[in-house]
Amino acid sequence: MSHTIPMSGTAAPAITAKATDGSAFALPAAPDGGFSVVFFYRGVHCPVCKMQIAEVAQQEAPFRDAGIALSAVSMDDDDRMARQRDEWYLGNLIIGHAMTEKSARAWGLYLSDKAKDAEPARFAESGIAVIRPDGTIYALYLQNTPFARPHLDDLRKGLGVCQTCCPPISCGVSYFRGADFDFGVEPDGSDWLPVAG
Q: Rounded to an integer, what distance in angstroms lies between the CA atom of residue 84 and that of residue 117?
C-alpha cells in the first residue's frame, strides 16, 4: 500500500478516535487562537512513549501559557487505554485512543505490525502535528522509529516565535523577525542561523 503524507498548509485530516470518557475525541481549543499540537504515540507497550507523554502532561500548562494547546492520540483500544490511566502519568492532558487505521493513514503516520507479545496487532508510530487556528497543518514531524523525538523545550520556544511572527510555510529562504531576534532558514536545510537585525 502506498504511503502519503499531508502537505503543510493543507487542511488537517480529521482525527477519528475516542476520548477517555468514550465520547468522540476533539482537539482542545488553543488559547487566543494559538497552535494546537497533537502528539501521536505508539501505545502503552512503548516505554519511550510513556516518558514522552508524561513529559507532555507535565508541560501542558507552560505550553498553554504560551498559547499552545496539547493533546495526544494512539491506536490503543479501550483495555490498553485503561492500562495507561493506571500505569502512566497523564495529568490533565487531553488523550485520544482507538484512533482508526484510516485516520492514521490520512495523517501519513507509519504503521507497524506486532513483533513482540506486548504489542497490539497494528499500531501507529510516533508523530507530532502542529495545527493552525484555521485548521491547516503548520508543521508535521513523523517517525518510523520510537527514538530521537523533538525536545519539548525546543518545540515550545520555536512555536512561540512562530506564533509571534508566523513565518510562511516555505522550502526556500525565508527571513523573519522573532520575538527578540531574527532568524534565517537556509534552503539547504541547515540549522537556524542568526541574522543581523
A: 17
- How far apart CA 22 and CA 19 sit, in angstroms, is 5
Q: What are phi and psi of 193, to 5 degrees?
A: -115, 140
Pairing status of strand 69-73 against strand 36-40: parallel
pTM: 0.83
3-state DSSP assignment of residue 139: strand
Length of the chain: 197
User: Distance between CA 92 and CA 96 in Å, rounded?
Assistant: 13
Which pLDDT band, with edges at 50, 70 and 90, does 47 fall under?
A: very high
Q: Give the pLDDT confidence of 124-144 residue by residue, as tens digits.
A: 999 999 999 999 999 999 998
Q: Is 65 exposed, middle or buried (0-12, 13-18, 19+ CB in 10 A)?
A: exposed
